[in-house]
């Protein structure tokens, strides 16, 4: 029993160190402020972003365990918009034959999203090193604010390649997609870290609730791919 507590304490400390390191990297990545990311010559938009920061800048509880589960989700037929302004029809956008890693973000978030986006950036680099093809997808939960231009700037901040795409659209489409993946909480301030991955169309989704590291996601990806 004592050894278990020691391992849990070690995991908690390791995850706290990971979060601090990611927060530092994410803060450096986003240096220049929310106005720069948002392309905000519009003062109203800057106020919107500042309000997000005020409400979402708080200490995050750290769970030492990333909870894993498998699920089958019924993907809705809808259209989102890529960061380049082109339309993306779902579920075809997801069902293109590639393995998928998917999360939900919004660009004015200052806690959860910079961390998970920094991890996706690391995962993207690790996948490239191993010559693994996968489709990384980040869907905005704040589409009214996250225009394609803002998502494009955000993607550049995290050095997203063509392998990693960002999506926005109508509020209704975003909510429907969140509900389909059982992450909708009614308010973006209740956003929490969760990552989804799937080996190929028709396979179940692996859901990881919590702040998974890049190594954890890569390990899960390799395990998923080998058992597909």
Could you name the ranges where pLDDT drops below 50 across 5 or more consecutive residues?
4-8, 32-60
Residue share in helix: 40-55%
The total tally of domains equals: 1
How would a crystallographer describe the biggest sheet? Answer: 8 strands, mixed
The CA-CA distance between the termini, in Å, is 36 Å
Say what the CATH topology is: Glutaredoxin
SS elements, strand count: 8
Do you know the CATH architecture?
A: 3-Layer(aba) Sandwich
The DSSP helix count reads 7
> Taking strands numbered 1, 2, ... along the chain, how are they ordered across the largest sheet?
1-8-7-4-5-6-2-3
Into which percentage range does the β-strand content fall?
Answer: 15-25%
A few lines on this structure:
The protein has helices at 2-29, 33-38, 43-56, 112-129, 148-157, 171-180, 214-227, and strands spanning 67-71, 78-82, 87-90, 99-105, 134-140, 164-168, 194-198, 205-209. It is an alpha+beta fold and 228 residues long.
